[in-house]
Amino acid sequence: MSELKRTPLFPEYADIPGVRCIDFGGWELPVQFSGIHKEHEAVREAAGLFDVSHMGEFLVKGPQAESFIQHVTVNDVTTLVPGHAQYSAMCYPDGGVVDDLLVYKLADQSYMLVVNASNIDKDWEWLQQHLSEGVEMTNESDHTALLALQGPKAEEMLAPLVKEDITTLGAFHFLQNVELFGASVLLSRTGYTGEDGFEIYLPSSDAPAVWKGLLEHGAAKGLLPAGLGARDTLRFEAKLPLYGQELSKDISPLEGGIGFFVKLNQADDFIGKEALLQQKSSGVPRKLVGVEMIDRGIPRSHYPVFAGDKQIGEITTGTQSPTLKRNLGLALVDSSFAAIGTEVEVDIRGKRLKAEVVSVPFYKRARKGADSK
């Protein structure tokens, strides 16, 4: 059995009472520090600090970097200027998803791709297979740490700590070479919680000082360290997809609810475009919808969803919403049953319980800052 990988901050966890770590895709990561609901509430009302250093970072450089990324991702990378980022996905020729990712334009002919931790090796291999002349790729994942400061008070916590004016930094915009507790960081107004916030990319060796500095500075304003459990409930309420649940090699971006980011009208061909055009013209066979339980029960991943005697899909993610106190789920269902108000049944441990298709996202904040993967 292979040893679990650890982030540069693993030694710091020991200083936090109540921390509980789990095996997450081969990484030993904190599922909670003080409790999932407490951390979730802190992010919705003040701020939480996440260690997401397990994510992958690839640098892509060269005169053909833009055209290469345009070919392997579904969004239109030609719209980016230095200092801007976009959410996107990579697809297989049949339209299934290799991974969803963020694309940062660092400079002309220079980009950073941020991919899911469990997909780092697979994504690297996929990109290498399609690499063209005039493109140089380096895998910086092992040398890069990533902290996510998320919540309505994130800006007021961070602003006094940096020289730059971050109050005017828009969603999906970022600043490079920002000094923070002695480290030079890339500061991005992005996140994965449905709240305003920032993601901080920095050298792994600098991560402990920045982690401790932020927690110490933000404590008086309600900042808490937050784990994977709260990250999942927060992103779920905001209908932000998780690879392997809402997106996969068998679930296209159109089915998984991120069709807005698929630019089918662009002139350039990208891998999977033909299949996705066909899927759109024929009608997307399945749709990701929200469901709310009518009967008492909590929907969980992979629970079957029925309409009458017919199974029409399954729950991709489900829980009792900590913010809304309702039993909710995201479900991938036959498109003919996707209309809001449609009554369905969820099979919970062999018992069919009534539920209803409802609008998503379940939670939506007043817009101000960032909201992405």
From TrEMBL:
| Keyword field | Aminotransferase, Transferase
InterPro entries in UniProt: GcvT (IPR006223), GcvT/YgfZ/DmdA (IPR028896), GcvT/YgfZ_C (IPR029043), GcvT_bac (IPR022903), GcvT_C (IPR013977), GCVT_N (IPR006222), TrmE/GcvT-like (IPR027266)
Note the superkingdom of the native organism.
Bacteria
Q: Which residue spans traverse the membrane?
A: none
Return one GO MF term: aminomethyltransferase activity
Signal peptide stretch: none
Show the catalytic activity: N(6)-[(R)-S(8)-aminomethyldihydrolipoyl]-L-lysyl-[protein] + (6S)-5,6,7,8-tetrahydrofolate = N(6)-[(R)-dihydrolipoyl]-L-lysyl-[protein] + (6R)-5,10-methylene-5,6,7,8-tetrahydrofolate + NH4(+)
Q: Does the keyword Transferase apply?
A: yes
Q: Which Gene3D superfamilies does the record associate with it?
A: Aminomethyltransferase beta-barrel domains, Aminomethyltransferase fragment, Probable tRNA modification gtpase trme, domain 1
> What EC number(s) does the entry state?
2.1.2.10
- Cite a single Pfam family from the UniProt record: GCV_T_C
Q: Where is the Aminomethyltransferase C-terminal domain?
A: 286-364
Query: For the GCVT N-terminal domain, which residue ranges apply?
Result: 18-265
What family does this belong to? Belongs to the GcvT family.
User: Which proteins does it associate with, and in what oligomeric form?
Assistant: The glycine cleavage system is composed of four proteins: P, T, L and H.
The protein's matches in PANTHER family, at most eight in alphabetical order, are given as: AMINOMETHYLTRANSFERASE, AMINOMETHYLTRANSFERASE, MITOCHONDRIAL
The UniProt function text for this chain reads: The glycine cleavage system catalyzes the degradation of glycine.
Q: What is this protein called?
A: Aminomethyltransferase
Organism from which the protein derives? Paenibacillus chibensis
What is the primary gene name for this protein? gcvT
